[in-house]
Fold this sequence. Notes:
- Helices cover 9% and strands 48% of the residues.
- It is built from one helix and eight strands.
- The radius of gyration is 18 Å and the shape is elongated.
- The model has no long low-confidence stretch (mean pLDDT 89).
Amino acid sequence: MAAQKGKDLLLKADSTGTGVFTTIAGLRSRAIAFNAETVDITHQESAGQWRELLAGAGVKSVRLTGAGIFKDQASDELVRSYVFNGTIRDWQVVVPDFGTIEAPFQITSFELTGRHDGEVAFEIAVESAGEVTFAAL
């Protein structure tokens, strides 16, 4: 994948529960992390006492994080309702020249910050709550 503009990586949430995706706010930074826990099957007779792992047995998850400002009242209301209601909805991450990652996610962290001489900003983290799919572009 060639170098891409960070602003082109989009975080979108299903705003209606019917597959209508809305770009979440004016994100200034965003990141996606894929995680795979391991299952240690090391035993007394493991070669040289080196750790052994069971292939494909761990729990997989995805964590999305972002920080920015709300661009409009609609995205503000959407995120706020998902936070207070613990809503699990499909989210998408669109990575230019790579693909689209889609899965049900729940907001696990939401923080508002503001300086006396600046705008109100937020930080958000969402964790996968089901199967993650990938569609190449």
